[in-house]
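Feature request disguised as a bug: please show the residue count (312) next to LysR family transcriptional regulator in the output. Example input:
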Amino acid sequence: MANHFDLTDLQLIVNIGDASSLTRGAEKSHLSLPAASNRVKNLEDHFGTRLFHRNSQGVTLTPSGEAFLRHARQVLRQIEHLRGDIHEYARGIKGQVRMMANTTAMTEFMPAVLSSYLASHPDVTVELRERLSYLIVKAVSEGAADIGIVAGRPAASDLEFLPYQEDRLVLVTPLDHQLGGLDEVSFADTMSFEYVGLSEWSAIHAFLIQAANSIGHPFRFRVEVSNFETVCRMIEKGVGIGVVPERAAQRYAQRLNIKLVRISDEWAERKLHVCVRSLEQLPVFARELVNMLTRDVPQQVLTSTQFKSKKT
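Example output, currently without the count:
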């Protein structure tokens, strides 16, 4: 049966779905609104089903539209993979890697890895977004991301998981705080104290709210800032306490008057994994990034698993 749609149609549906707007989807696809509307209508006529619900606020995907969007993403990524593999035979690869990572990976591991990777791949761009682990798994599974770095190993039979790094979340307090004298504390026992944390755009912000909700405690940050160093500086001045990745906390403890306390909850021990749909099907330049991530593990694993802090 002859095809009645093309790659422009596929990209248009992806753009409309991402924007929840026919107008913005058309603009991103470099099409006029009438041309985009006509393409959507032709697709719906061809398949005999509506792809979008239209309303005054924009458009939302129907179940048929969700299925079309999922397959469209996969087809477009396969085209990108084809281009990437062919460019491997030419001097200078051109391509894009879409990557998602949790807060710890974003702040502690990715800067060094990407610096090295991009230096050796000058014609490759990396789109890196911070997300909660379960959203990363969903994005990789649906083809919205090529590579993910997640905490734990969530159930996802259609994905491949590669061991990456280990890290902990620890409680950071001022030197004279009553919790600072403890070796270990449960998250529940910290709920009566004011918290300093990253802004709501960060994955760890939503993660801590979920952790508090799971034990039946309301939770909010008294102060929200943009990075872990500022979190620790606020804590040093007595503004509150906070939960920070251990590596970052140990680094700031070298020059700030703060204490680091183990969190006894199971979720504080974090084993990070790289996840992909299929390592073999990634374009060459994306596989090389995965290889660099996994090769990097022996150099970045802590030399001791014992909890250490300069401030005791």
